[in-house]
Amino acid sequence: MTVDNPRDQFPIGMRVLAVDDDPLCLRLLEALLRRCQYHVTTSSEAVAALNMLRENRNNFDLVISEVQMPDMDGFKLLELVRLEMNLPVIMLSGNGDPKLVMKGITEGACDYLLKPVRIEELKNIWKHVIRGKKNEFDDDEPSTQKKPRVIWSLELHQKFVTAVNHLGIDKAVPKKILHLMNVDNLTRENVASHLQKYRLYLKRISWHAKQHPNNMEAALGSSDSSYLTRTKTHITLFIKYIP
């Protein structure tokens, strides 16, 4: 008799560590993840979650963490997990402030989900695990020359945004953005990855704005009218990318 290995049925049984200090939110998140047929472990403390990962790093495929927690914020957990284990981390928050969303994405989060989380979003998180495994395989190839990791500083990101605004979000492609940025050692792959994250960022803002059609300022977390004008333009241009 042959017993199927649960790992052969991936993403069924994908091992997710969910971290949130709010017990109600954590229970709801766990229930949604289980409905997606993932194997879920929960923790109400970021430090405890980090220790769990350090002791059993091969027992998890992905981490979902709340941003604001009392013992350690989600960004610090993201930093340590990426540094020590290179697991994909999804940030989770009820705060749709674009600055927080962009911080999570630029610091390496593979996604940034806004509460309340929808099961449709969770059904596709397994793709981040596949993408991470592919990158690990590429790095292990002897013919692959490893390049220094690009740190997207505020200055570098501003050059990126300036290039995207110049081209228009609907016409911005990595090759053209790279040409306009004119930054040494920056590759088309670097720009393509950042563009994907930036579009995700705009999508999050657009979704949040749709939920607050009469309160655009609150949805964007800013009272600067010029900032609102620029962001509204981004939302209008990017609306076609929303499924």
Give a summary of the structure in a few sentences:
With 243 residues, this protein is an alpha/beta fold.
Q: Mind sketching the topology for me?
A:
Elements: E1 15-19, H1 23-35, E2 39-43, H2 46-55, E3 62-66, H3 74-84, E4 89-93, H4 98-106, E5 111-114, H5 119-122, H6 126-140, H7 154-167, H8 174-181, H9 188-211, H10 216-220, H11 225-238
Parallel strand pairs: 1-2, 1-3, 3-4, 4-5
Describe this structure in words.
Helix 3 (74-84) links the parallel strand 3 (62-66) and strand 4. The chain is α/β, with parallel strands linked by helices. It has eleven helices and five strands. Helix 2 runs parallel beside helix 3 and helix 8 (174-181) crosses helix 9 (188-211). It is globular. It folds into two domains: 15-131, 3-Layer(aba) Sandwich (Rossmann fold), CATH 3.40.50; 154-216, Arc Repressor Mutant, subunit A, CATH 1.10.10.60. Mean pLDDT is 78; it is low at 1-5 and 215-243. The relative contact order is 0.09.
List keywords for this structure.
Rossmann fold; disordered C terminus; 2 domains; single chain; 243 residues; alpha/beta
* Uncertain residue ranges: 1-5, 215-243
- Write out the CATH superfamily name of the largest domain: Response regulator
Q: What percent of the residues sit in helical stretches (DSSP H or I)? A: 40-55%
Give the mean pLDDT: 78
What share of the residues does DSSP label as strand, in percent? 5-15%
Q: Let me know the largest β-sheet.
A: 5 strands, parallel
Number of helices: 11
Rg on CA atoms, Å: 19 Å
Order of helices and strands: EHEHEHEHEHHHHHHH
Distance between the termini: 44 Å
Number of strands: 5
